[in-house]
Design a protein that fits this description.
By secondary structure, the protein is α/β, with parallel strands linked by helices. It has seven helices and 19 strands. The longest helix has 20 residues.
Length: about 325
């Protein structure tokens, strides 16, 4: 339960963006409250964000030997606490941004805030297979980020699920490491732009399984993903395809439902920020991390915008 009823800064979300914002806001003596857990829209919407479901993080600066996702988040949280950030767990039920101070209804209390930093992140879209969570966390071999994890698939055959620009980009990027990349798409026609399609189709390392879906993922502890059962939607025939990893490229959904449309968003639902800052369409409300970033979606870029949001909030309050 929050210690106070009013805060100068309330930060929604405790991933890299939210925790970095907390560090900077605390050092600026703004006494931020961090609401862990975001908007409660998904099973992955947990304190610490998506990195709590990530095993090895090898591309975050400062850790030459890599670090576990949960450990990185715990270190960032301790750093924020050290400087005086306050944390409260539980779902944000409602937020009112039409009046000042802003009102936030939490599970345990009603608090008001002079500024709000939205760092609720985005969640990858998955197929909904019962074994997916195990392969994403405990077993390994299933990913939604080629930039993050492509390095680990050197010399392997990997599948990329999707038919849009993201799938083409991910598949093309993965050919730098994998020996073979097979794109699995449920339709014959791709949604990707013609330029992206042409680039992928001209790549000799990319193969295609169209009109097809992944029906089951094979593998186990110590092996990771070893293959998948693919079903052709036109013929109904199934076949087992050996592979060393599967990348989901069917899109992301920003966690903005709890905001109720009070902030401007783009056509994909990501929060819009203005004038090269983290400022949203409501003065005093700032957006950081994946909730406003459909392009990079990296822990380090999220942390960078968390820093920016805290500085923007401090300057807003000072004026």
């Amino acid at each position: 339960m929050p210690a106070k009823s009013h805060y100068r800064v309330v930060i929604l979300g405790s991933g890299p963006a939210g925790l970095t914002a907390a560090v900077y806001a605390s050092r600026a003596e703004l006494g931020p409250l961090v609401v862990e857990g975001g908007g409660g829209e998904d099973a992955t919407d947990v304190p610490g964000g998506q990195l709590m479901l990530t095993t090895d993080v090898d591309n975050y600066p400062g850790f030459p030997d890599g670090i576990l996702g949960p450990e990185l988040m715990e270190r960032m949280r301790k750093q924020a606490v050290r400087f005086g950030a306050e944390f409260t767990s539980g779902e944000l039920k409602q937020i009112a941004l039409q009046q000042r101070p802003f009102k936030l209804t939490l599970e345990s209390a009603l608090v008001t805030a002079d500024t709000v930093i939205v760092a609720t992140g985005a969640r990858a879209k998955w197929l909904g297979l019962p074994e997916e969570l195990d392969f994403r966390t405990r077993i390994g071999g299933l990913s939604a980020c080629a930039t993050c994890d492509g390095f680990f698939y050197k010399g392997k055959h990997v599948l990329v699920v999707g038919g849009g620009d993201t799938a083409m980009e991910e598949a093309t990027f993965l050919t730098k490491f994998a020996d073979k990349v097979t794109i699995v798409h449920r339709r014959q026609e791709l949604r990707a732009s013609k330029a992206m399609q042409t680039r992928a189709k001209q790549n000799p390392k990319i193969a295609w399984l169209l009109d097809s879906v992944v029906e089951k993922i094979h593998g186990g502890a110590g092996q990771g993903v070893t293959g998948a059962t693919i079903r052709n939607l036109k013929t109904g025939a199934t076949s087992d395809v050996a592979c060393g990893g599967i990348f989901m490229a069917i899109g992301h959904t920003p966690n903005t439902a709890v905001l109720g449309g009070q902030l401007e968003r783009d056509e994909q639902g990501y929060l819009l920020v203005h004038d090269g800052t983290t400022a949203t369409s409501v003065p005093g409300v700032f957006a950081a991390g994946d909730v406003a970033d459909h392009r990079y979606r990296q822990a380090v870029t999220a942390a960078g915008t968390g820093c920016m949001a805290a500085i923007d909030a401090e300057r807003f309050l000072s004026h």
